[in-house]
Amino acid sequence: MRTLPQNSNSGQVKSTDELSSLMEDVLARAKKQGATDASVSVNHDTGFSVDVRMKDVETVAFSEDNSISVVVYVGQKMGSASSTDTSPNALEAMVSAALDIAKVSAADPCFGLASRELMSNDYLDLDLCHPWPISPTEAIELALQCEHLALSSDSRISNSDGVNLSTYKFCYGFANSYGFLGVVNSSRHSMSCSLIAKEGESMQRDYEYSTVRNAKNLLSPELLADSAVKRAVSRLGARPIKTQQIPVLFSSRVSSGLFSSLISAISGSNLYRKNSFLLDSIGQSIFKKGIRIYDQPHLPGALGSSPFDGEGVLTRNNVWVEDGKIAQYVLGSYSARKLGLETTGNSGGVFNLTVDATAGDFKELLSEMGTGLLVTELMGSGINILTGDYSRGASGFWVEEGAIKYPVEEVTIAGNLKDMFASIVAIGSDINPNLTTRCGSVLIEQMMVAGT
């Protein structure tokens, strides 16, 4: 991918109509310069964020980003280029750069646009855009209020790591030479509060956050501050535990990572490269019976919703795991062709990945675990998708007889993802609303926990 520099005469994309016209212009230029087929994507993102810490404003950052990229095909050869400059001369140069790359690239019979019949300009409106009419001054006041509530509620909160509030509007467009043209407007607003608690020689940090499409659904400053305080204070006095094999409960704050690894292992890009521990796994029982994992791309207003994927293919409700068995792979058109299959409409990833609950709420999972480790934070990235080996630093709480006893830190949890998936005995109903993966806490029957 070539990125062309922005210059002082760059055009500024402002509206859906302008995005559509811009994409049509680029496609016409690509055809005129000799492309067999082409696709173009455009982004126009605007918003701001504020950071306050210890009663002072640290940063106020405004952003307005424009970017455009084109993919061209010359027969079975492909080239791509991108730019932040949307002036006519820059667009012409971008298309020329992509074609120059295509002409010297190796041919690949799997290159090309997605199947025409999988696209439609009559796509769903998923209610994703809710701009927040808040000024930077109002945002600062809200952030300062949240921090004040946190600092004044418990004497053990000795310091603040800051409160952040951000609001952004995104406009994404995609079009190709098959006639597909789609533009999606969306918004995302978030607020986070990070605190440091101290008692004696013990000092701990924790946080709370809220991320939504519609600002009306943000946690209030009072609830955000209260939760951040409780989380930070609860970590005081943390200590290691002895090395042992025990049940491990991944809280809903971290459990989504387990299923991100699953999706990575059954994604076409890893499968056709043979870089996955789940090669040829269709129909295999990877989880216990009753576990179901699937996409819900059309949930109105949800963080992971989208009417079409990164190739213009209309999204659909795909089931990845049915009754514990792998039902299908996660595919875009290129990886599907490599594997002799058809795209699942997941170019660019999954949409509102959902893991059905098999048990009750968080307290019920604690009770079912009895004695073991509750994991609330993970560190490092020790996951090998080729072998499934898993090893990550962790912190959380020691649990006995279904009750939290004391905080735990400086431990490592290890295993193999295939064994871990097979050992999942319960999935809770306590879905984390701040994530695109809709999953509750996950109880694994046994894992090795390395401590003292």
Helical percent range?
10-25%
Beginning-to-end CA distance, first to last residue: 48 Å
Rg value: 24 Å
Oligomer: single chain
Major sheet attributes: 7 strands, mixed
Low-pLDDT parts are 1-13
Amount of beta strand: 35-45%
Query: What's the number of extended β-strand segments?
Result: 17
What count of domains describes the coordinates? 2
Protein structure class: alpha+beta
How many helices? The count is 9
Mean model confidence by pLDDT: 95
SSE pattern, N- to C-terminal: EHEEEHHEEEHEHHEEEHEHEEEHEE
Q: Estimate the global geometry from the Cα principal axes.
A: globular
Q: Strands of the largest sheet, in order across it?
A: 1-4-3-2-5-6-7
Give a description of the structure:
The chain folds into two domains: 2-46 and 62-118, PmbA/TldD fold (2-Layer Sandwich); 238-452, no CATH class. It is 22% helix and 35% strand. The chain has helices at residues 16-32, 88-104, 136-151, 221-234, 256-265, 268-272, 333-339, 362-369, 417-422, and strands spanning 2-4, 37-53, 56-74, 77-83, 157-176, 181-199, 202-212, 244-250, 293-294, 319-322, 325-326, 354-355, 372-379, 389-400, 403-416, 424-427, 442-450. Strands 1-4-3-2-5-6-7 form a seven-stranded mixed β-sheet. It is globular and about 70 Å long. The two termini are 48 Å apart. 42% of the residues are buried.
